Amino acid sequence: AQSVTQLDSQVPVFEEAPVELRCNYSSSVSVYLFWYVQYPNQGLQLLLKYLSGSTLVESINGFEAEFNKSQTSFHLRKPSVHISDTAEYFCAVSDRRGFQKLVFGTGTRLLVSP
Amino acid sequence: DTGVSQDPRHKITKRGQNVTFRCDPISEHNRLYWYRQTLGQGPEFLTYFQNEAQLEKSRLLSDRFSAERPKGSFSTLEIQRTEQGDSAMYLCASSFDRVSEQYFGPGTRLTVT
Q1: What is the pLDDT of residues B18-69, one digit of tens each?
Q2: Which of A39, B39, B47, B102 would be a feasible disulfide site paired with B93, CB 3.0-4.6 Å?
Q3: Nearest Cα to B30, choosing from B5, B50, B2, B54?
């Protein structure tokens, strides 16, 4: 079984400041890793994913996440946030060998203010 | 719009009533998932279909819950004898294969009064 921990339920930050949203996971098997974003009144959208290869993955809107196997982490970072990045961010994992059931963390609400 | 659609978007029902939700996945996706999301929590897996076969069910899916995917296209999730604890957002997602992205629908918000 897998589990995901997102310790920060809310992260307030000023516009153009850097941000890191933390994600740690627990699993007895190899996993795929994902970050999903949920904007207000919208459905979940995939932000980025780690399947294999380079441990640093990037999204098209400037976010990046690094898979750290020894620390079982997949933290999400952005060097300069915008007001439009205000949303709920969910870290998720799935068993590499299974049918891709996603196990989500409880989410981190990113609040960007001017 | 060729994304995942769900109907209805909102449902208010009285305790003890039955409700049914529908999910239409992206047409070429043979994998379909149902999740439930309560306030302040991340989505939790309920059940999974590959084509028309229901291959996995979570312990969260009590006997009052049933899901179907006839002909491997749309899926329905029925809750019988609803309870207040069933109030949640019910999310549907679909994907093409094991490593491709799961695309989520907008969800059906159920409120049991």
Answers
A1: 999 999 999 989 999 999 999 889 999 999 999 999 999 998 888 999 999 9
A2: B102
A3: B50
Q: How far is B91 from chain A (nearest CA, A)?
A: 9
**Are the beta carbons of A106 and B42 separated by less than 8 Å?**
yes
3-state helix, strand, coil in chain B (%, to 5): 5, 50, 45
In this complex, the residue of B48, B101, B106 whose CB is nearest that of residue A101 is B48
- Looking at the predicted structure, is the pLDDT value of residue A104 above 70? yes
Please report which confidence band the pLDDT of residue B1 belongs to, taking 50, 70 and 90 as the band edges. low
Strand partners, A29: none
Size of interface A-B (CB pairs under 8 A): 56
CB neighbours of residue A57 within 10 Å: 21
Residues of B in contact with A9 (CB under 8 A): 40
What's the token pair of residue A89? 């961010």
Q: How far apart are CA A63 and CA A55, in angstroms?
A: 14
Please tell me the distance from the alpha carbon of residue B61 to that of residue A19, in angstroms, as a whole number: 37
